[in-house]
């Protein structure tokens, strides 16, 4: 039996805040009223609003919004972990992205956040054995958001993908909790092998813009990958790597680089 969604708004502080921000947004800009009402204020729960937003974005002439909405509503009712992860991702974006000033922004405007939630729906379908629908969602996420995440990939909670253009995460990749990455990141393979061939990103890793991590290698927790780097070998925890090919250039610089979003390599931190 599907788990019921919480109905009273006051029991969900994230959703309550989003609704308050939505009302304020309409007061400030009445022309946004239709969009904000349709996306947020029309819905009783965060789950309903997320299902509506994902379905609207992924719909096409090949798959209607209504069908996708029914799929999403069913998934969120049967798998509350999906929307728990969506809340964690939302909080991550708000806390780490200096361009995010309201909780409602990722839900309405940020394609990195929306792409991750659509991937999560596709991954759930993949695990249910509904692989063709999962592939369809992967295709639409790539077409609409410029983000290509295989539905078999494993992605943790508290994920922040800033800008999100040209993100690629391969079939056997694993991304831990509280990972942050910028645009044009690739977690890819190195050949045509048909087995476990993609990177394993541990918790708290920060991956800079344009970085490529290739092969079945492990990136240790709370490490940093500098922008534009090509990583071909495993990275120990709490280190910074940079270059093509990447090498260790120092410590991570802080306990939680994915939370601080500090990409700078300071003098004195570079190793031999």
UniProtKB/TrEMBL annotation:
One of its GO terms (cellular component) is cytoplasm. The lineage of its organism: Bacteria, Pseudomonadati, Pseudomonadota, Alphaproteobacteria, Rhodobacterales. Residues 14-118 form the Serine acetyltransferase N-terminal domain. GO terms for biological process: cysteine biosynthetic process from serine. Its EC number is 2.3.1.30. CDD domains: LbH_SAT (cd03354). It comes from Oceanicola granulosus (strain ATCC BAA-861 / DSM 15982 / KCTC 12143 / HTCC2516). GO terms for molecular function: serine O-acetyltransferase activity. It catalyses: L-serine + acetyl-CoA = O-acetyl-L-serine + CoA. This is Serine acetyltransferase. It comes from the Bacteria.
